[in-house]
Amino acid sequence: MVAFCGIEGASNNTKLVTTLKELELLGTNTTIMVRRQFHVHVENTEVFLGNSALIKCAIPDYVRAYVKVASWQRGEEMLLPDLSDVAGRYVVLSASGDLYIRAVRTEDSLVKYSCLVTNTLNGDRQRSEAVMLQVKELSKNLAPRTTQKPVMDIHVERGNDVHMPCNIQGSPLPIFTWYRVSDSSALYPIPSSQRVILSRTLLLIKNADERDAGKWVCQASNQFGEQRIEIRLFVNSYVSVHILPQVQIVNSGGTAIFNCSTTGSAIDNIEWLHNGKPLQEDNILTTGRDNLRFLAKYSLMIQNVGRRDRGVYQCLVQNQKSSAQAMAELKLGDTVPELIYTFIEQNVRPGPLISLKCSASGSPPPQVSFG
Prior knowledge:
The chain has one helix spanning about 20-25; strands at about 5-10, 15, 30-35, 40, 45-50, 55, 55-60, 65-75, 75-80, 90, 100, 110-120, 125, 130, 135, 140-145, 150-155, 160-165, 170, 175-180, 185-190, 195-200, 200-205, 215-220, 225-235, 240-245, 245-250, 255-265, 270-275, 275-280, 280, 285, 290-295, 300, 310-320, 325-330, 335-340, 360-365. It is mainly beta and about 375 residues long.
């Protein structure tokens, strides 16, 4: 029986492999995700009238990496992630795909909700069963409380928008304040701007980048108590890499240093190659060339440069999201003359002319003399 596997390769390359032969052609560095059956469902949700509701589309963890929420159905109305207004009553959250309903009304309990998910490996779609939202009337005072995790992680790709929810309920309705947590754990109130938009129980960051990574805190309070939620935001970016200098000309016996610099998310692995051949294994040089050594894992030094050291050097870097490589060239400048062809032993008879060949290489070109 042939197993169907999803293949998640370097950089944004996601493929679906359908035969064992195709699987054999893939490199050993490829991450294989077995295509498994899964089921999505909408979690039952209770909310007090006038508060906000967070309705989750539950996707199993083992397929979450490549199964995404495409849309929600609210009765006859379709709700799309890209068309959600952060100030509107219904918002499909960009990171999780969950449905956020602000200022819940009685009418919200009269329709059914379902989510539609897409398998990004093969395009298959699956819709959950439709469920009702349970809206309760609150006749007494209630200190702020939440069913949301007190500390939650949200991941976003660099350049994408991200919603951060603060699903805290209370009566009277709590006052919400958002804070940014500094490295010293101090809390700084966040002013609303064109890029960071505060909408009481929801915060939207447009075009997220590395400066947005870190801890954010939502605080809800009324006269009966206070509740906080901490959100740890991780901004993932595809890695890029450069080697400097890109071209080095070093005289024979000199020293060359190549520095590999990266931008983007944290690097999990780095590998150096010379003319296509790996120079190391587990960060240890395995070439037997005692003139090579690492000043750091991003810096390669070549001492006593000779002919075998010239050529193309590559720096390959990789993290969980992508991989990248950069190349640089080492050229020889002045080199010590080296005899390429010398006299060969010949048996000759006296009288006739003979030809003796001697050639050498070097930079600058050497002069050959006979003595």
